[in-house]
Amino acid sequence: MVGIAVGGLLPFGAVFMEAVFIMSSVWLSQVYYMFGFLFVVMLSLAVVSAEISIVMCYFHLGHEDPNWQWRSFLTPAASGGYLFLYAVYYYFLALDFSTGTAALVYFAYMFVASWAFFLMTGAIGFLSTLVFVRAIYGQIKMD
Length: 143
Known about the structure:
Layout: H1 2-27, H2 35-62, H3 69-94, H4 100-138
Helix pairs in contact: 1-2, 1-3, 2-3, 2-4, 3-4
């Protein structure tokens, strides 16, 4: 479990600053104008998610742990939990909503965004690890 929690920090760290800019543009009505940089950050997120999932899976396969599937999904997907934790921190740091309804809407939207981030990074991690495991076990010749 510690490996999953630590592994989720790397993909979240790859998109942290963009998350700050996007949340500021959505919730504080600021203009977001860095769409080209956002594309590069999304590519780096995909690469980091794939790499951390493959590395953690390789460690577990080295210790003869055959249950790599859920771990390969949950390791990069833990970054969705970190995104939601940051959204809670951002609520108390930067936002000043006057009604409870606005706070409810904020947390509902951020939960959905965090869940989408969870599923996206988890799917990237699982699919890349699946390709990796098939490649390394496809090289074994049993004669």
